[in-house]
Amino acid sequence: MIARLTFALAIGGMILPLPALADAGGGQAPAARANDAHYFGGLWQVERFIPFVDNATPVPEQQARMDHYKAVQKDGQILYSAWTSCRPGSPSAMVMPMNSLIILQKEADITLSFEEPRLTRRVRMNAEHPAHPKPSYAGDSIGRWDGNTLVIDTIGYNGDFQLDSAGLGTSPQLHTTERWTKSPDGKRIDVETTIKDPVYYS
What we know:
Layout: E1 5-17, H1 18-21, H2 31-34, E2 42-46, H3 60-74, H4 90-95, E3 98-105, E4 109-116, E5 119-125, E6 140-146, E7 149-155, E8 175-182, E9 188-196
Parallel strand pairs: 5-6
Antiparallel strand pairs: 1-2, 1-9, 2-3, 3-4, 4-5, 6-7, 7-8, 8-9
């Protein structure tokens, strides 16, 4: 069985709609663009920080590793994880983004640039995954619209990072699906992420 870890992230308080960045006069972007359900471009502030994924169903080997991590932390030691060692990883940004997020959007692709963890992702719109994607921290992301929701499908991870501060592991078989939905007033994006990894979770 493949585990499905699902959690929600709130990104709210658009600081500056992207069209205004190019406005030398400092004016605001047209309200119609800010309220466009298919347009996320702009500078956003992350509302919610999730240090732990609490609904994981790990296989026994992963559970033993997690128990060891908890014991180490309880003794006051610093856990050497992707988070504490500043390793990147798209799922870390999905779970634990902090501070600001810049979104650059074009018809062909969407770029997500996170302040913390320091990571930039490119989502190719209406594309297909390569047959053999080169493993990386960010993976290979493709996007499509499901009504007013942006669906981002990512594979091709390298497995060299954890999902959260507790050290939840990942493997190269990791597969993530994100659903990004903008609020009607254009001031918030709700993100739901489903994580599948048959190596670590049952």
